[in-house]
Amino acid sequence: MLFAVICAVAVATIYVAQPVLAQIGGDLGLPQADLGWIVTTGQLGYLIGLALLVPLGDMFDRRKLIAGHLLLAAAGMALAAVAAQLWLLLAGLALAGLFAVVVQTTVAFAADLSTAAERGRTLGAVTSGVIIGILGARVLAGSLAALWGWRSVYVAIAVLLIALTCLVMRLLPPDPRDVRTTYGAVLISLGRMFRERLFVSRGLIAFFLFASFGTLWSGLALPLAAGPWHLSPAQIGFFGIAGLAGALGASRAGKRADAGRADAVTGGALALLAASWLATGQASWSLWPVVVGVVVLDFAVQAVHVNNQHLLTAAYSHRTSSAIGGYMLFYSLGSAVGATGTTAVYSAAGWAGSSLLGAAFALCALLVWAVNRHAAADARRDMLVQLPRPVPRSPGP
C-alpha cells in the first residue's frame, strides 16, 4: 500500500497542471500559446530522469534513494506554489518532473522485495497507484483549485511528498548493495538492453499502448466540450472516475501473470483495447458508450502494463531499476505521440479521426505482441526456473 501511494502522489506531480492551466495563465498573465509549456516542462524533466536517475537504483540503497527523490520532488512543488513568474514556475515543475521518476525506482524495489511466485500480484497492486495518480490528479486538482486556487494544489502535493519521505525511512527495509559498480557501467548496461528482443518488443508494445491511452485522455475533452454536449471541465473530469474503475479492475492481471498466463492476458487485453475505440468513438453522438469504452481501455492498459513489467523484472532480476527505467522511456514517448497526434487529427477529421488513430495504435501493439510471442514464452520458462521447488518430505514411520 505504501508503494502504491508513493507512485500515485509522485506521478500526480506531472499531471495536476492540466485542469488548472487556465487559472495559472490568468494569475500569471500568460498568453494561451505559452500554457502548453507548463505541462511539457514536467514531462521533459521526467523523460530525462528515466534515462539518468532511475538506473541509480541498481547502485545505491533504494530506500534512501526513494526518500531523497521524494524530498526533491517536494521542493519542486513548493517552488511552483510560490512562483510569481513563468520561469520560476517552469523551474519548479522541471525539478518535480525530474524526480517524479521515483515511481520507477519504487516499482523496481517492490518487484525485488517480492518472491518470484508473487511478483505479478505485487506489481499489479503497486502500478494501480500509477494509474490512480494519473487519473485522480485531474479530479484532485480541479477540486482544490475551485476551493483555494491553483497554488493550493502544489502545496498539498508538497506536503504529501514530505510525509511520504518520513514514512519511507521509517517503514521500508534497508536495501544494501553487495556489488559495487560505476554509473557509466550501469548506463552501458541499460544501452545494451535496447539490442535485446524481449526488452525492445515489450517497449514497443508500451509505446503503442500509451500512445492509444494518450490519444483518449488528451483528446476526449474536445468532443465533450463541443456540441451537442458542451460539458464543463468538472463534468469532463468525472470520466476519469470511470477510468479508475477500469484500472483497479485490472489489478488482478498480476495474479494471472504469476499463474503463467501473462502472454495470453496481454494478447486478450490488447484486443480489448482496440475494441474499446468502437465505444469511445461514439462521443459525438452518445455518452454511455464512452463510459464503457473508457472503463475497457483503462482495464486493458493496466493489464498489459503489469504483465510487461512482470516479464521484464523477471528477465532482468539483477538490474530491475535499469529495466523499468528503460521500458518507461517507451511509455513516455508513446504518451507524447498520442497527445500531440490526437489534437492534430481532431482539428482535421474530428473525433472519428482521433478514434481511428487510437485504434490504429492499439492494433500496432497487438501486431508487435503477435510477432514476438516466443520471446515472452522464453522469458517465462526462465522465470519458472527461479521459482523455489518444494522440499520433499521424509516418509513417516
What does this protein look like?
Helix content is 79%, strand content 0%. It has helices at residues 2-15, 21-28, 36-52, 62-82, 86-99, 102-113, 119-148, 150-171, 183-193, 197-219, 221-225, 233-237, 239-249, 253-258, 262-280, 288-315, 320-371, 373-386. With 397 residues, it is mainly alpha-helical. It contains 18 helices and no strands. The termini are far apart. It is globular, with a radius of gyration of 21 Å.
Number of helices: 18
Rounded mean pLDDT score: 85
Based on helices, strands and strand pairing, what is the structural class?
mainly alpha
Order of helices and strands: HHHHHHHHHHHHHHHHHH
Give the SSE map:
Blueprint: H1 2-15, H2 21-28, H3 36-52, H4 62-82, H5 86-99, H6 102-113, H7 119-148, H8 150-171, H9 183-193, H10 197-219, H11 221-225, H12 233-237, H13 239-249, H14 253-258, H15 262-280, H16 288-315, H17 320-371, H18 373-386
